[in-house]
Amino acid sequence: MEGYNYIVACIPGELVIEILKKLPAKSLMKFKCVSKSFYSLISDPFFIESHQKSYITQFFVNRPRMTYYRLSKSEERDEDLATCPLEYLDQSCFQNLRYMQSTNGLVCLWNDLGDIAICNPFIKQHVFLPFQQHKGSTFYAIGFDTTTKRHKVFNAEIFRGGKLICSIFTIGIDKSWREVSSYINFRPTDDNCVCIDGVIYFVNNYIRDIVAFSVGDEKFIRRIPFPIKEWPLRLFNFTPLLVETKGQVAILGHVYFNFGKIALYILNGTSEIEPWKKY
């Protein structure tokens, strides 16, 4: 170990961090056992966030199985990208969880009965959150608070007549769910949301717009209309997909009545009239 300590002491701390950021999650879990300093560094929320930003993590859901993911470093060539089965999610304890949503490599799984699990399939760990008894249709989403570096799980329960009750759970902190303000008309879809810079953006099927929820402030902060003359009120199956591109909110979908073309709109302004740029 004396030789190891000498080598590590000769490497600048900044370089050690950059090297560790390039490693996959499974290797980092093993490196936690190297020393107390490595354990402290790899467990630090700021390091975890910077490591996540060094990788592109995309989940491709093959319903109803939820079986595929794709993980790649941003600088790798296309031929180096890997597509692998999410075998960890095939465990019997997840079999009754029908819905899925993911943020920063964490996967949120739930069902209509009130069971919900948060999984990290890359290091093969999971936790079940406190059971919630539901009387209406329910939706969950996991978000990241950029200030506290904590993940929070958002829940919306919609009752007959349109009544909405929202609650929040901070992973690693809360022991029970906390109700939060829900003054808007809001009906989210099962998996059409994205979390960017501490804000969860939802496609709202009640009024057909996009609703923004601040994970840190735990409140709704903005409503964003769909692009003008694009995706008006229409059938559910034609709702555009909400995605992230280069750290910005974007919506992707077939051009209205023209299924030979795909439209990509990126949110690039605060205008309530037309905040989108078309590509």
Automatic annotation (TrEMBL):
Organism: Solanum commersonii (Commerson's wild potato)
Gene3D superfamilies registered for this protein in UniProt: 1.20.1280.50
UniProt lineage: Eukaryota, Viridiplantae, Streptophyta, Embryophyta, Tracheophyta
Regions that span the bilayer: none
Protein name per the record: F-box domain-containing protein
Chain ranges of the F-box domain: 5-51
